[in-house]
Amino acid sequence: MLHHLNPPQREAIHYLDGPLLVLAGAGSGKTRVITQKIAYLVNKAGYQASQIAAITFTNKAAREMQERVSPLLEGKSGKGLTVTTFHSLGLQMLRQEAALLGYKPQFSILDASDSFKILSDVLATTDKQLLRKTQWQISSWKNALLSPDQAKATADEELSHAAARVYQLYQQTLRAYQAVDFDDLIKIPVELFDQHAETLDKWQRKLQYLLIDEYQDTNACQYKLIKQLTGIRGQFTAVGDDDQAIYGWRGADVENLNQLTKDFSKLKVIKLEQNYRSTVRILRAANQVIANNPKLFEKKLWSELGTGELLHVTATHSEEHEAETVVMKLQAHKFEHRTTYKDYAILYRSNHQARIIEQYLRNQKIPYTISGGQSFFDKAEIKDIISYLRLVMNEDDDPAFIRAATTPKKGIGNTTLERLGEYASAHKLSLFAAAFEGGFQQEVGNKQLDDLLTFCRFIQTLQGRAVKDPANEVLNDLLNAIHYESYLYDGEEARSAETRWGNVQEFVSWLSKKGEASTEFGHESDGKNLIELTQLVSLITMLEGREDGEPDAVKLSTLHAAKGLEYGHVFLIGCEEGILPHTNSIDSDQIEEERRLMYVGITRAQKSLNITWCKKRKRAGEMQACEPSRFIAELPKDDVKHFGNPFNGPDQVLSKDYGKSKMANIKAMLAGKQQMQGG
Ligand code: ATP
Ligand code: MG
């Protein structure tokens, strides 16, 4: 079983004498240590799968890990094994302990735009910048485990004083809605464990061994959860790489690596140095770029996978030209090397960069999947349907109530809703409950009341069905009852209505597939009912968007979402000052985190790496000249070949090769076509 492991990996897997930290660079087999260690714990060390929890950073990583572990569990069922994200684990705890906390198990999980709206109400403003700042501030406080009162005490300026007051009102609103936000999913369990020793004890006995991947990106709140769960036994393995810490903006703190050493005096540290992912050139590039950051821990990384191809850095004229170049190079490379689409990834700093690449891929009929965006769940039609589901689960969810009651329009007008809102807040009721109050009913006309009550009763009918009928049946009946399809066709031109209706159908089938069986919640591997599915959807919405199931497709992803993954051939686009490193980071002196992002990007590649940048880019409606990213200059010169003729880039990027390579590409493409036709 322990084939394909080097001695330090083996040592890490066998080590059970206490807390263990595996600290190593990219591609050195840290995640492999986790999957193999789970198998070792179950097959050799006498643990039950249900006593083990492995925590990763994204749903996708959790899925991959589960897939890798299952075949290793020698015939024994891995039943009850928890492979999950921090947020899913928190959700699982919250749901089980809801009663203790005064929540109903069907509490809602609000997405960022819901909390944005609540903040906008609380602050009585539409100033987006102020709202975003407040939202970020509240999130930081939560991740640092500060209550509104504590936040007030630490606030040192007028603005954060105001924000602390808003934080308090915001929390009260969430409470009233029986809702939690993203940060609460971890913060509330931590508080619960602080206050209820017997509950903590129960969870400690349940989860006897913890394994944590991507440890460098845990924030204070997540770290505390680990500490609570592992208790004095400290039976855990954390793996991480300080050079890949890229969630500082979300409150993650690399200091947590140091903190481990302080909190666990018996902490054992194992380092891995062999990289099994990338060619020597790619690895050298990564090492050389990251060497410009001050070091936290000394690490070496070497590879036996051969020198490999030169890295390509291409200067392009515009975003369009960049997209065209990338797609053309990708096709030529695929023809030449007889690879498949899924061997390729196109990575970028920010979501918006994907749009134009998507367009060119579509033009060329190249299949692709996109992750890290929230495009699918953010679509109006999907949010409409989710609002019904949320309301069915939790009638106190006022944001969902308003959206569902008014989409499609069903005779419930704004005046009625305003009256309802006033009555509800005066009597501290949810909108739903207020609709049934005599006091309110006297205030509105018969017709208005009828429409409102018809809607509420409709929701009640669905509530009854949600707990017993299959999810897709309930959903389809819901869609029929609200005439959602004709609503789309009435409001839009046929083609866009068709697309939207297609999305809704896809959502229904996606949900019902999820309802059949899943591993996302560890031991709840049986089919999920609509209640669980709705919470699952909220979680995915916030974490990373939906994963498409296209089997052979080019992967489009943000650098953040590509963490931990690997691809044969990587295109890293938009390597310009202002994009990577991002403007905000340049302004706020966060270059080191941007450099770590670059490091993450480079180290995703196994065999080839293509870096592109634009000499001009449209910003605020105007074409503006761009500078190549400073990280390009940090690449080892001997490992890089430059393409393009930058009229405003630094000398080192000048090259006459662009035309030549274009010809070579076309030749390669033709050769590939002949092969295809011949074969
Ligand atoms: P990252 O820092 O990017 O998360 P990682 O340290 O988690 O990387 P893995 O993803 O576990 O690295 O491993 C990188 C690649 O090397 C994987 O394809 C893995 O299967 C392979 N690998 C790991 N260890 C070995 C080994 N001992 N022998 C052969 N291949 C290995
Ligand atoms: Mg990993």
TrEMBL record:
Q: EC annotation?
A: 5.6.2.4
Q: Does the keyword Zinc apply?
A: no
- Keyword Isomerase carried by entry: yes
Give one Pfam hit by family name: UvrD-helicase
Q: Which residues form the UvrD-like helicase C-terminal domain?
A: 280-564
Q: Which reaction does it catalyse?
A: Couples ATP hydrolysis with the unwinding of duplex DNA by translocating in the 3'-5' direction; ATP + H2O = ADP + phosphate + H(+)
Q: Which UniProt keywords apply?
A: ATP-binding, DNA replication, DNA-binding, Helicase, Hydrolase, Isomerase, Nucleotide-binding
Give all residue intervals belonging to the UvrD-like helicase ATP-binding domain.
Answer: 3-279
Residues annotated as binding ATP: 24-31, 277
Oligomeric state and partners? Answer: Homodimer.
What family does the database annotate?
Belongs to the helicase family. UvrD subfamily.
General function of this protein: Rep helicase is a single-stranded DNA-dependent ATPase involved in DNA replication; it can initiate unwinding at a nick in the DNA. It binds to the single-stranded DNA and acts in a progressive fashion along the DNA in the 3' to 5' direction.
- State the name under which the record lists this protein: ATP-dependent DNA helicase Rep
